[in-house]
Amino acid sequence: MSGSSITIAAKDGGSFSAYLARPAGGAPAPAIVVIQEIFGVNAVMRGVADWLAGEGYVAIVPDLFWRIEPGIDITDQSKAEWDRAFQLFGAFDRDKGIIDIDATRAVAATLPGTNGKVGAVGYCLGGHMAYRTAAETAVDATVGYYGVGINDVLHLAPGIRKPLMLHVAEKDGFVPPEAQAKIADGLGGNPLVTIHTYLGQDHAFARIGGAHYDQASADLANRRTLDFFAAHLG
């Protein structure tokens, strides 16, 4: 596999970059859009794309903060970076973010070496956007890790017409129990939606190097994610 950068035309003018990771071998493969956390297209997100490429997928990570500032690439290792990340989180236009994710999906479906199937996976802010991607785009299968604020946009749930899997951290400091209950109630009746709860885990339990990283839970969630994509993107 190898990583490179491509440029995607925005539907409302302008363009943005995306990190692209391809699997080894020449057989047509499904594509997966990787939806960033609040730290931009950083080493963690590029690592997710490389992991998925290693599992046989064409992975593409769009720069969703480009309308605020292109090329954000920070970590979760300092207070200054956390302050900047929350500033970006507050400034991010989620409606335009969905437009950019859908533009990425359309490009991913037609990239050389792909088979036309496109999934999506997102983390944190990206987990929220993954839910919206499932509800508002033609993506074929979507996974969200510890999405924040899904309980505030459950009115979009009728738009979910393709499989969606959500990984929920039971002790998520950003998604309290009442929000988790609301999500379960709002989505539990949809047979296309699968919700996994990770007992005792806090937000970002799958972020390697993060304060709440838990390898056992991350490995379980990642295995479920790969099985899910294998079932729905094959």
Can you tell me the overall shape? globular
Provide the residue-averaged pLDDT: 96
Main sheet: strands, sense, barrel: 8 strands, mixed
The N- to C-terminal Cα distance equals: 19 Å
Note the run of SSEs as H and E.
Answer: EEEHEHHEHEEHEH
| CATH homolog superfamily | Alpha/Beta hydrolase fold, catalytic domain
Q: Kindly state the percentage of residues in helix.
A: 25-40%
Q: Which class best fits the helix and strand makeup?
A: alpha/beta
CATH architecture: 3-Layer(aba) Sandwich
Strands side by side in the biggest sheet: 1-2-4-3-5-6-7-8
The level 1 CATH classification is Alpha Beta
Report the radius of gyration as a whole number of Å. 16 Å
Total number of helices: 6
CATH topology, what is it called?
A: Rossmann fold
Oligomeric status:
single chain
Domain Dienelactone hydrolase: 16-232
InterPro entries: AB_hydrolase_fold, Dienelactn_hydro, Dienelactone_hydrolase-like
GO molecular function: hydrolase activity
Pfam families: DLH
Short description:
The chain has 234 residues and is an alpha/beta fold. The protein has helices at residues 43-54, 79-91, 94-110, 125-136, 177-187, 215-233, and strands spanning 2-9, 15-22, 29-35, 58-62, 114-123, 141-145, 164-169, 193-198.
Describe the fold and architecture.
The protein is of the alpha/beta class. It has one domain: Alpha/Beta hydrolase fold, catalytic domain (Rossmann fold), CATH 3.40.50.1820. Helices cover about 35% and strands about 25% of the residues. An 8-stranded mixed β-sheet has the order 1-2-4-3-5-6-7-8, with helices on both faces. Strand 7 (about 165-170), helix 5 (about 175-185) and strand 8 form a beta-alpha-beta unit.
